[in-house]
Amino acid sequence: xxxxxxxxxxxxxxxxxxxxxxxxxxxxxxxxxxxxxxxxxxxxxxxxxxxxxxxxxxxxxxxxxxxxxxxxxxxxxxxxxxxxxxxxxxxxxxxxxxxxxxxxxxxxxxxxxxxxxxxxxxxxxxxxxxxxxxxxxxxxxxxxxxxxxxxxxxxxxxxxxxxxxxxxxxxxxxxxxxxxxxxxxxxxxxxxxxxxxxxxxxxxxxxxxxxxxxxxxxxxxxxxxxxxxxxxxxxxxxxxxxxxxxxxxxxxxxxxxxxxxxxxxxxxxxxxxxxxxxxxxxxxxxxxxxxxxxxxxxxxxxxxxxxxxxxxxxxxxxxxxxxxxxxxxxxxxxxxxxxxxxxxxxxxxxxxxxxxxx
Length: 358
Ligand SMILES: [Fe+2]
Known about the structure:
Layout: H1 20-27, E1 32-35, E2 41-44, H2 54-67, E3 69-72, H3 80-87, E4 113-116, E5 143-150, E6 158-162, H4 163-169, H5 172-178, E7 181-185, E8 191-193, E9 195-197, E10 204-206, E11 213-219, H6 227-232, E12 240-242, H7 245-260, H8 262-265, E13 268-271, E14 278-282, E15 286-290, H9 298-301, E16 305-311
Parallel strand pairs: 2-3
Antiparallel strand pairs: 1-2, 3-14, 4-16, 5-14, 5-16, 6-13, 6-15, 7-8, 7-11, 9-10, 11-12
Helix pairs in contact: 1-2
Bound molecules: fe (ii) ion (FE2).
């Protein structure tokens, strides 16, 4: 194990294989499913212009929750409205669009967030650090679609890490500590638990935005009271405190090291796209970041055009301990004054000299 990985447990992370019964159901529609290792799966033979039967969509969404993501292969030349329609199969069955629209967006469809390594073609430099989409929302997107309208010849994929497996490899004391933490978004003041229980898989999963977090609140421990009990109780003000700059740096570096270590520890994948790949992630189960190659210019890498659609969640990603879902991040720090309370932009900068953008 690399040096940064020594702080994590040397256990084999559990990412369940595709369930044979669900695979049989999916394949009864003429599709072919291929499990990727160590996570994700590809689906061949689909045409997402035609809606799949509801039980198949249900089976796919359970597998997405378990394995993080799926890819419908060979879906070239989807129109903007076809892409949006296929995105409405998941989550709350509607899209949730919070972004600006780049002038090169097909049909100027406001539900499509067009990313590119050419500023004329789309928005540059999106998502270089580990994150989940829409963390500035209380109801963080349940799923996201990444449609590779044009894959760059030189490569430029996305890194994915399974957040349930990530929790499993944390040492016991960090599992306990992280479950007592709640992050505050730097631009909206929305709060999210650092560890949540996934609504479909039931797995405890880590969750933090490395480029948009302004504060982290700790619920202080109580001797002999298990975390599950603490989470059910409303904390008083003096049972809550903010992490200090040193504690924030340690937490963010641990989180980054944990997900960076996902490739070696067996719960991360570097996915390279073909043109026409339509990838959906379960955004509550899977963290992601653009690969460094994704942002290299077209003359080095080839032109990359990726359309993203974000999907409404049926529920809020709500914090424990009676902490409100929204805090006034632009108001003065209401907690201990040595704690970090950083509003605006990328929030707390935990490492100098690294690119951060959403
Ligand atoms: Fe993203």
